[in-house]
Amino acid sequence: MNSKIHIKRLIIITTTLICSFYTILAQKPEPYMMELSDFARGKELFEKEKYASALHFFDNVVEKYDDISGDKVEAEYLAALSSIRLYNWDAEYRINRFVNTHRDNPLLNEAYLELADHFYQSKNYRRAIKYYELVDRLELNDEQLPAYFFKTGYSHFMDGDRKRAMLFFSEIMDIDTEYSRPAIYYFSYIAYDEEMYRTAYDGFLRLMGDESFGHVVPFYIVQIMYILEDYDGILEIAPRIIDAAGEDRKSEMYRLIGDAYFKKGDYRSAALNLEEHLKLAKRTGREGTYQLAFCYYKAQENDKAIKLFQEVTKRRDELSQNAYYLLGDCFIKKDQKKLAQAAFSSAAKMDYDRDIKEEALFNFAKLTYETTYSPFGEVIRSFQEYIEQFPGSEHVKEAYDYLVSAYMKVKNYKAAIQSLDRITYKDERLERANQKVAFFRGLELYKNLDLNSAVGMFDKSLQYGKYDREIRAKTHYWKGESLYRLNETDRALEEYQEFMGIPGSSSLEEYSMVSYNMGYIHYNNGDYAEALRWFKKYESGSKGSTGKLITDTYNRIADCYYISTDYKQAIKYYDRVIANPATGTDYALFQKGFALGLMHDQNYKTRVLTTLINDYPNSILIPNALFERGRAYVGLENDNQGEKDFMEIINSHQNSVFVPRAMVQLGLLYYNRGENDKAISRFKEVIEKFQSTPEARNALTGLKNTYVDINDVESYFAYVKNLEGYGDVSSSERDSLLYISGENLYIAGNCDRASQVFRSYLSEFKQGSFRLNACFYLAECLVASGNTDESLKYYLEVSQTPNNPFLEKTYESLSGIYYLKEVYDSSYYYYYELEKAAELPGNELKAIVGMMKSAYNMGDAEKTIISSRVLMESDMVTEELAREASFMSAKSNYALGNYDRALIDFRRVAVEVTSSEGAESKYRVAQILVMKNNMDDAEDIIYEFIDQSTPHQYWMARMFILLADISLKKGDEFQARATLQSLKDYYQEEDDGILDEVNAKLDELNRENEMSADTLNINDI
Question: Which of 251, 357, 446, 649 is the most buried (most CB within 10 A)?
Fold first, then answer.
C-alpha cells in the first residue's frame, strides 16, 4: 500500500522544566532591589505561561545585570524559552546565543532539547533533528527519554531517513509509555514499506485492538498475509474486519479476499468478492479485469468471461495474449468457431509467451481447417508457420498432416500455390496437392480471362500429371480452351488430342465440347471437311439436347455441306435449326433460301425468305433477304414484286450496303423492261452517289449499254467526259491496271509491295475508279504491319462513302482501334455505326458490346445502361457477356444513385465470385444493404461471400472492412478489431490501399480506447 496512514496528532507532553535556581548567597545591596523585583516578576509570569510579559521582564534583567550575575544567566535562558513558547522568529538565535555564551552551563542540554522540541512542534523536522542530535540523552531523566526517542525517530521518519527512524522507535517499543505504541506503529509501517513483512507483521499484531491504531493495523496485516501468501489467514481475518473499513479500504479488502479465493481455486467465491470490489471501486485496472474474467471462465460463466476478456485486449501486451487465448476457449465452448478462430489468431500473433503462442497458433490453424474459413490462405500459412516456428513440438506431425489435407481442400488456390512454391522438397502427398491446386488456380485465371497465366498454371499442374488421371485430362482440355481463345489453334488442337487420348476422358463432361471446339478450329481454318467430321461427332454425342450449342452446330454442319455444294444436306440441317428455334434461326432461313436459289427453285426461295422477313423483322439479314427475294422475283419474271423489294431496301434500310446494289438491280430491271429513262436515272444515281465502288462501275456499264441501245452514244461520252476519273480513256486504263496490280499483290499476301502500289495509285488518281478499294486494302495492310495510326486516315476515307461494301469491316476496325487507344467517344460512335451496318451476327454483337464498354469507360452512365439492356435482350449474348452487361449496368445505376436498380443488377452478377465482376457485385450488394441499414442481411451476404471463396483478394478484403464497420455499428468492438487485425496479419497486397485503410481504422479504435484501456465500469459486465 503506497498511501500513508495518518493518525491523530499525539499529545506532546511538555518536558518538565527543571530549573535550578541559584541560591542567593549574599544579601543584595539596595540598588539591586528593583532588578530583583523584575526577575521575580518574570519568573512568576513565566510559570503562569504569560510568556510575552515574562519575556519583557527577563530582557530587562539581562540588560541591567552584569555579566557574572547568576540571575542574569537564568533570565537569559528563561527569555529564550519564552521566545520558543511564543514561536518567535528569534527563538533559535536566543538559544544559540545562550549556548555560545554559557558553554559550561548545566542548562545547555535542556536548551538543545527545548529548541529541538520547538522545531518538532513547528514540523521543521530537519532542524529538529539537528538539535535532537546535540542533546546528550544520558543527561535526560527517565520521563524525558520516551518523548525524546519518539520525536527524534518521527523527525527522521518525516525527513526520509527510515533506518535512523526505526533505530529510535525501537528504543521504546518494549517499554510501557505513551509513546511506545505510536513507535511500534511507525516502526511496523516502515518495515512494511521496506518489504520487511515478517517484522511488520509482528509489530502490527501487537497493535491489534489498540484504541488509536486498532482500526488501521488489521488492513496491513491482511495485506502482509496476501504478500506472504497466507490465504487461509486472509480468509479468517478479512471478512471480520471488512464492515469496519471505509469504502475505499472495503473495496481493497474484497479484492484481497477475492484473490485469496482465486489462489485457492475457489473461483465462484473469488468472483463474488471481486464483483463486490468492483461495485465499490467503480473502476479497476486491466489486471483486475482479467482476474475476474478468469474466475468467470473457470466457473463456466462464459458470457461474462467473454465480455471482460474483450475489455482486457484493448492493448497489445502479455495480458492481452493470455486474454485472447482464453477468449478462444470461451468461444469454442459456445460453438462460435469463427470468433474463436479470430481470438486464437490474435494470441498467436504475439510473442510474449511462447507456450501460449504455440498453442494458439495450432488451435487457430485447426479451426481454420475445420471451418474452411481461410479467405487469405490462413490455414496453409498458419500450419506452415507452426511447423517452421515449432519444429520440436509434439503437434508437428499432426500439423503436417493437416497441411497436406489443407492443400487438397483449400479454395484460396492462389495462396496455396504461393505456399507450395516455398517448399523445396515435396513428397508424393504434396505433389498430388500441387497437381490439384495448380489446376483449379488455372481455372480461376481462365474464368477471369487471364489466359496466358492460365496456360502457365495448367503447365504447372501437368508437371505432376502422373497422379490424378482425371485432373490431368481436364487440365489438357482447359489448356486447349485457353490456347483456343488466344487464337493459338494449332497448340489448342494438340491439347484437345492429348485430352481425348487419356483413358476415361470420354466419360467427362468436357469430352463433347472437344468435338465442338475442334470443329470450329478446322472451320475457321477453312478445312470444312474436317470441320464437318468433328461437328457431326459433337452432334452424335448430343442426341436429344436442345439449346444454343446444338443449334449452332446444326448451322455449322449445314454451312460445311453448303460450301461443298451439297445443298440438299445443307438444307436438311438448316431445317433442324428452323424446326427448333433457339438462336441463328434467321441465318438458317436465309441460307436455306440462298441454297434453294442455287438449286434454281426460285419459288421456294421466295417463300423461305418471306418467312424470314415476316417472322424476324429485326434481323440484320433483312436487307440481304429483301435483295435476294427481289432477285428471285425478277428471275420468276415477277418484276413488280422484285421492284418492291429493291425499293424497300432503298427506302427503309438507307445505311445498308445493299442500297447501291438494289439501285443497280432496279436500273437493270428498267433496262430489261425498256424503261430506258428510268434505267439511266438509276445508273447515274449510283455512279454519282457511290463513286469508286464496284456498284458504281457496274452502273457505268449498265449506263453504257442503255445509251448504246437507244443509239445515243454521244450522250454517254459527254456524260463520262465530265465525270471525274472517267474522262480520259488512257488514264482510266492506267487507273485500272495500276489498281489491279496492287490488288493481286494484296491477294497474294504481299502487303509490303501492295502498300507501295496502293500509295502510288492513291497519289496519282485522286478520284480513281478504285480509290475506295485501294484505301481499304491499304488500311488493312497498315493494320497488319502494326501501323494503326496511319491506317486511320484511310479507314476514315472509306467510312465517308455511304453504303459501300467495305463499311462493315471499316467500322469494325475504326471502333477497335479507337477503343484500344482509349478514345472512347470515337469508338462508341463507330461501334454505333457498325451496329447499323452489320450483316454478320458476330459484328452486331461486337458492336453492342463495344458501345456498352465505350460508354462505360467514358463515364456515360445513361448510354451504358441503354447498351447493356440491348445486349442482355440479344439472343446472341453469352453467359460471360450477360454478366458483364449486368455488371456495367449496375455500376452505372450505382453512379447515378439508382441504388434499387443497381442492387437488382448486382444480385444478378453476384451468383458467383470467381470472376472479378461477380466478386465486386457481391460486395456492392452488401454495401448497399448497409447503406439501407439492413445490417443482418448484409452480414449474411458477407459470410456467404467468404464461404464461397474467391481469387479476388481485394474484394474479400473490402468485405472484411465492411464486416468490421457492421460490427462497430452493432457495438461489437471486439469483433470489429479482430476482423481488422486479421486483415492486417494476413492480407498480402501492400499497394492497393487496403492496409492503409485497415491501419487507419485500427489506430482510430486505439485512440478511442486509450482513455478506457486500464479501467472497466462494473455496469458494463
Answer: 649
43 vs 498, residue with greater confidence: 498
Residues 670, 672, 676, 682: what is their CA dihedral angle, to the nearest 10 degrees?
40
3-class DSSP assignment, residue 756: helix
Compute the distance between CA of residue 490 and CA of residue 481 in angstroms, rounded to an integer.
Answer: 12
SS3 (DSSP) at 554 = helix
CB atoms within 10 A of CB 936: 10
Which residue in the block uniquely carries the three cell numbers 470472376?
915
Q: What is the pLDDT of residues 530-545, one digit of tens each?
A: 999 999 988 887 775 6
Q: How far is CA 27 from CA 77, 180, 671, in A?
A: 23, 49, 183
Measured distance between the N- and C-terminal CA atoms of the chain, rounded to whole angstroms: 27
What's phi and psi for 724, nearest 5 deg? -60, 130
pLDDT, tens digit (0-9, with 9 covering 90-100), for 332-388:
999 998 889 889 988 998 999 999 999 999 998 888 888 766 777 778 888 888 888
Average pLDDT over residues 867-880: 84
Burial 758-779 (b: 16+ CB within 10 A, else e): beebbeebeebbbbbbbbbbbb
Question: Of 610, 608, 613, nearest to 594 (Cα)?
Answer: 608
840 pLDDT above the threshold of 80: no
Q: How far apart are CA 726 and CA 720, in angstroms?
A: 6
Furthest C-alpha separation in the chain: 191
* pLDDT tens digits for range 4-15: 333 222 222 222
Residue 55 or residue 197, greater confidence: 197
Q: Is the dihedral of CA 267, 273, 279, 283 positive or negative?
A: negative
pLDDT of residue 729: 46
Which grid cell sits at 18? 527543571
Specify the long-range contacts of residues 924-927, CB closer than 8 Å, at least 24 apart.
924/890, 924/894, 926/959, 926/962, 927/962
Specify the amino acid at residue 739: Y
Average pLDDT over the chain reads 84
Residues 208, 212, 213, 215, CA torsion sign: positive
To 10 degrees, the CA torsion angle through 199, 203, 205, 208? -160
CB atoms within 10 A of CB 515: 22
Res 19 pLDDT > 50? no
* Whole-number pLDDT of residue 25: 28
pTM recorded for the entire structure: 0.62
CA distances from 563 to 386, 557, 840, 912, 967 (A): 66, 10, 17, 42, 66
Cell 472495503 sits at which residue? 250
Q: Read off the C-alpha cell for 145.
A: 527519554
User: 3-state secondary structure string, 383-437?
Assistant: HHHHHHHCCCCCCHHHHHHHHHHHHHHCCCHHHHHHHHHHCCCCCHHHHHHHHHH
